[in-house]
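TASK: fixed-backbone design
INPUT:
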């Protein structure tokens, strides 16, 4: 009986897509160039899909993550917003994000995913643009 339940549960997951993360497209204006767009909390919108680089005024990583993020943007022709941690705390993003620096994926007013500065498993994403790309590709399409 237990094996039958496991089998049925597995079939349900496979056919309903449960557990499968769907990727999203960013809004059109973020594809095709590699701008880091400085914004304030007032510019954060609840509509649309976009990336936000939340930065601190200091960085203790051996390779500053902003250089890695910029390299990713240059290689993939993707633009993203740049927002200070202090400004981020005035937005809905702060309901999810506790520490910076980070890249936050926003879609229609929801945080889809983010780099967690306190998670050791995320450290490589801050230090290698190719690994950052792999992480982002799980949530977004890099080309339109």
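OUTPUT:
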């Amino acid at each position: 009986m237990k094996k039958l339940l496991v089998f049925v549960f597995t079939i349900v997951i496979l056919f309903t897509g449960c557990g499968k993360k769907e990727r999203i497209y960013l809004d059109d204006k973020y594809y095709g160039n590699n701008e880091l767009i400085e914004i304030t909390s007032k510019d954060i919108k609840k509509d649309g899909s976009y990336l936000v680089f939340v930065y601190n005024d200091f960085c203790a990583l051996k390779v500053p993550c902003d250089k890695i993020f910029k390299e990713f943007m240059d290689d993939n022709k993707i633009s993203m917003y740049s927002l200070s941690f202090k400004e981020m705390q005035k937005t809905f993003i702060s309901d999810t994000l506790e520490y910076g620096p980070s890249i936050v994926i926003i879609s229609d007013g929801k945080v889809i995913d983010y780099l967690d500065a306190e998670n050791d498993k995320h450290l490589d994403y801050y230090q290698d643009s190719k690994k950052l790309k792999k992480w982002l590709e799980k949530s977004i399409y890099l080309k339109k």
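COMMENT: The two ends are 47 Å apart (CA to CA).
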